[in-house]
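Subject: for your reference before the review

Hello V.,

The reviewers asked for a structural picture of the protein, and I figured it would be easier to keep everything in one thread rather than splitting it across files. Below is the amino acid sequence we used in the manuscript, unchanged from the supplementary table.
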Amino acid sequence: MNVVDAIRDIARARPRHPAILEGARAEPGQGARAAGDVAIDYATLVARVESRADALVRAGVTRGERIGLVARQGAGFIEAALAILAADACFVPIPDGTAGAALDEAVRESALHGVVEESEGFALRRVDGARACGEAGIDGEGERAFRALHPAYLRFTSGTTNERKGVVVGHEAVAARLANANRALGIGPEDRILWLLPMAHHFLVSILLYLRAGATVLLPASTFPRDVLALAARARATVFYASPYHYRMLASDDSGVALDGVRLAVSTADGLRAEVARAFALRFGIPLVQALGIIEVGLPVVNAASAAAKPEALGRPGADYDVWLRAEDGSRIEPGASSPEHTGEICIRGSGLFDAYLRPWLPAARAIEPDGFRTGDQGYFDADGDLHLAGRRANRINMAGMKFFAEEVEAVLDAHPGVRVSRVFAKEHAQLGQIPVAEFVPVEPADAPDRRALTAHCRARLAAYKIPREFTPVAEIAMTPTGKVRRAAR
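And here is what came back from the structure prediction:
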């Protein structure tokens, strides 16, 4: 089985159905279709994929080799990624712009056998990443075990720790997690999905899912609201898939463009805050459906049932997953016993979970027993059975035995009209153990809210012990490519 086979089947059944539509820049007065839009049907897509795959095989690529891809967002990225999969190699996405020493490090980190770069016309460049990574590379047994998994996808993530791990997902696991996710999303051939996330970080339970379902992927010319909404309107988008960062930008649009045909707007890649959901719903009349995406697992929880009433909830676990809460002593917290004050670590069992970590080599069976996959996230279930995220275990602050999460405080600070974005973290304290402190980017640097104003704002919304003891204005706060606050090592 190869995950590209289903796309080949779509091309045979509906050859002229559009697979990808790359949007042109929005211009005033455009009609239903812009002159610069480029549509690629399924027959054309598969023909290009097969041609690229044949070139890889002729260049000596064999089953299970790790092939990196460096390319911009767009149809070229999709075609090259599918070609690597179609050649039975393992697709390793590398963020666009990675070059020089950074690309050499990616080659070593992933022990790559080859790299495909858009800047080189998508030609394969042979490398020896296994040798380059030296003692830390995959040993002979690990390499044989890797190939035996029929690996499809490898991506590095910090996951539940600050140590980056290479997550390996085989073709069989990919197929299972796509089927699981689509039971919640219901993507079909008539759907047109407006895509805004970075492809180097999101591809499996998204782009690959849409194409295997025979849908059309809409790629706007930019993430600016004008380009996004113009393409959504003229291409009659039915689904949005983006991060809270994107939805916040779209909610601020005052063009009057409506999204009448959109049946589903999925928010993922970061926690959805209620004010973002409210603003988007007020502007477009569409609830945001939060989804919990995890590279080791897939899409185990989707807030399809309670999006309008509880947009900040993660939702209810899918039928293919057992999602449970682990107490600090390892015991199971029953759903009815959990609460915002009594959280547990979210653990997940089910089909489609990852197959191994690359370096050091660790089969998944040894990593997920006996608890399933331990996410590192703390959460609780409400009375309706909806799962809520309290925060990451690594972002927990313990002040004199009172524990809370940085994310909760950041949500309050970010709601202040003078704060663009904030980051809260623990500072060691001789008597209290830890105290919360904050840094923030002011909306108006020349008129930043002072400590007194921010303290008063927090006091009205938080328990006293959760209020930061320091507020530091900064020019910027580093963000990850998916729009999350980058947590600095402290």
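For the response letter, the relevant points are probably these. DSSP finds 14 helices and 27 strands in the chain. The chain has a mean pLDDT of 91.

Happy to draft the paragraph if you're swamped.

O.
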